Amino acid sequence: VQLVESGGGLVQPGESLTLSCKGSRFPVRQHEMRWYRQAPGKGRDFLGKITQFSETYYLESVKGRFTISRDDTQNTVYLQMIDLKPEDTAVYYCRRGVYGEFGRGTQVTVSS
After folding, report:
1. For the segment 22-38, what is each residue's pLDDT rounded down to a tens digit?
2. For residues 53 and 69, is the Cβ–Cβ distance under 8 A?
3. 38: closest CA among 110, 93, 103, 111?
């Protein structure tokens, strides 16, 4: 199982960013895929997930700003983030299910 996150970068407050999580050696559509983030000096927090049935669930604090989607043709899961805030600064990870390995993550920095 391999997951590769990408799409992070430096953005200003209020801007948007879409992260990608590409799976290899397994079809992401057959698994629950989860997004997490880890801010500097803090633990890794669950953000949301998309199920095999394309149902999505979100941490209450990001609901309305973050959207998880999936492209089966690309075997990729996305995390679209809008209206980014400095407190969204973190390394973002994806994960297969509850017990799967994390990818290496992608850094998102929100700063003016």
Report:
1. 999 899 999 999 999 99
2. no
3. 93
